[in-house]
Amino acid sequence: MAFWKIISAVVFVTFLVYLFNRSKLNDSVLKWMWLYLILLFIGDFYVPQISSFLFRSLKYTDANNVFYSTLLVPLGMAYYNSLFYQKLKPSSAKYIPLIALAFYFIVLIVEASAKYCNGDFLFLRYSYITGCLSLLITIFYYLYKLMMSDRILDFYNERMFYIAIGIFIFYIVGLPKFVFLSELRNYSFYRFYEFFVALFNVLMYGLFSIAAIWGKRD
Amino acid sequence: MGQAGLGYILAIFSLIVVILMLGVIIFMLQYRKRKILYDSEMERVNEAHKLDLLNTQVDVQASTMTTIGKELHDNLGQKVTLASIYLQQIPLKKNQESISEEIGSVNNMLNDILSELRRLSKSLVDQNLSFLSLSDLVKKEADHIRKAANVAVEVSFECEKKDIAFPIKNNILRMFQEFAQNSIKHSHCKKITVRFDCEDNIGKLVCSDDGIGFDPKAEVKGIGLTNLNRRALEMGAQLTIDSEKGKGTLMTLIIENFN
Questions:
Q1: Sorting pLDDT into bands at 50, 70 and 90, what band is B169?
Q2: B30 vs A: CB within 8 A
Q3: Closest chain B C-alpha to A81 CA, distance in angstroms
Q4: Which of A139, A152, A156, A185 best probes binding to B when mutated, by most B CB atoms within 10 angstroms?
Q5: Residue B206 buriedness (CB in 10 A; 0-12 / 13-18 / 19+)
Q6: For residue A135, what pLDDT is reported?
Q7: Is the Cβ–Cβ distance between B106 and B87 less than 8 Å?
Q8: What is the pTM of this model?
Q9: Is B159 within 8 Å of B124 (Cβ atoms)?
């Protein structure tokens, strides 16, 4: 079975976990995780149908690239940043996720305009790198704040801790795959690396599920 | 991307892995540092709490001794003296009728002394407080108030916990007694309401009356309010007393970690 099918199945299971546990999630953004996950699942599982329907004038691989670059990835970036915005809201650091997201969207718009207007329908790697790095900075700041506060004493009860670790690990491991996909494919170790990325993707959704099931504090 | 590019990626990856490992180590060290601080702080608080409890026990013992001393001196001592005077007068009596009357009086007095002694010993050994649940104790106290003071007492208890620690149970009961006594003595109330509920590890006692109320800012004589504050402090609880002239009094006690 291809990795993406396994990941889609894991996303669906995580969606079910959040759907059934949504009543105990007090965080106003986290309780919408089920909606994000089902959109992600539909987007991932039916990517050929959706992308060829939305961008019918483009050929299959180009339509896929545009679909991921302009819809699925920005959706993820917006949702994850809003999660951390909610978490950092009581402090003045709440602007970090907002600035990160704004920066990502600016780069996305500039890159999309530059490339798509020239008929170059590749995956928008620079905006992806910007989005990932700015999200990682936000997560790093969140973890730093957690480390310096008394909440570190029961960090295992904190839902956002698991979510932050999951995103942090997966985005670090997966960043080269999405950015240098076409180049890395030529190397013999690519299959092993792809398996590694899929494993970390599953681990990320596993941590999301742990957050929903065992986490006690939003 | 050539070999050099791949080399850069691997170098960046290695750097990230090292940073991550460092991050994990720093996180664990910070966790350990905080945990040690927290544990030592908890130990200090526990020691202070134990000392407080010990001081309270000593206070209670001293207060009990004072009460017994006063009872023996002011009440029983007087009655025994009186009985002794009556007995000394018996040989001076001429007729049988007055002798019988004197003996009857002494007998009554001795019976009185005996019942006072029983009451005193019973008050020293209050088994109920240890064995009855807080709910039963409060309800029992409410019954006593209804009978003794002719005041309506409404009790609502929504707490299933049975294993409430003795000092907490004792303090809650005593605070309710103190509130009720103050209400009866000073506020001329017709009705006292007491409600207790608990959720997770937080207990909440709310007592109110429909009496004449008082101005909480005014200097209040007596030790009632001081006692209430002292008991709340002992439990580490939060006590608020709201009152206004003509609008009754409301006492709210919030006890965290009351188990």
A1: confident
A2: yes
A3: 21
A4: A152
A5: middle
A6: 92
A7: yes
A8: 0.61
A9: no
3-state secondary structure B216-247: CCCCCCCCHHHHHHHHHHHHCCEEEEEECCCC
Q: Least CB-CB distance to B34: which of A150, A169, A176? A: A150
The answer to whether A154 and A96 have CB atoms below 8 angstroms apart is no
Structure confidence by residue, pLDDT tens digits, B180-215: 888 887 888 889 999 998 887 888 999 999 988 887
| Under 8 Å between Cβ of B189 and B148 | no
Distance to chain A for B45, nearest Cα, Å: 17
What are the Cα distances from residue B115, in Å, to B64, B66, B101, B108, B123? 19, 20, 21, 11, 12
Residue B127 in this model has a pLDDT that exceeds 90? no
Long-range contacts, stretch B78-86, CB < 8 angstroms, 24+ apart: B79/B109, B79/B112, B79/B113, B79/B116, B80/B113, B82/B109, B83/B109, B83/B110, B83/B113
ipTM of the complex: 0.70
Given a contact cutoff of 8 angstroms between Cβ atoms, the answer to whether A136 and A168 are in contact is yes
- For chain B, the C-alpha Rg in angstroms (whole number) is 31
Q: What stretches of chain A show up as alpha helix (H) in DSSP?
A: 3-21, 33-45, 47-54, 60-67, 73-88, 95-116, 125-148, 159-179, 181-184, 190-214
Interchain contact, B35 vs A153, CB within 8 Å? yes
For residue A187, the chain B residues in CB contact (below 8 A) are 6
Average pLDDT over residues A92-101: 89
- Distance in angstroms (rounded) separating the CA atoms of residues A109 and B96: 122
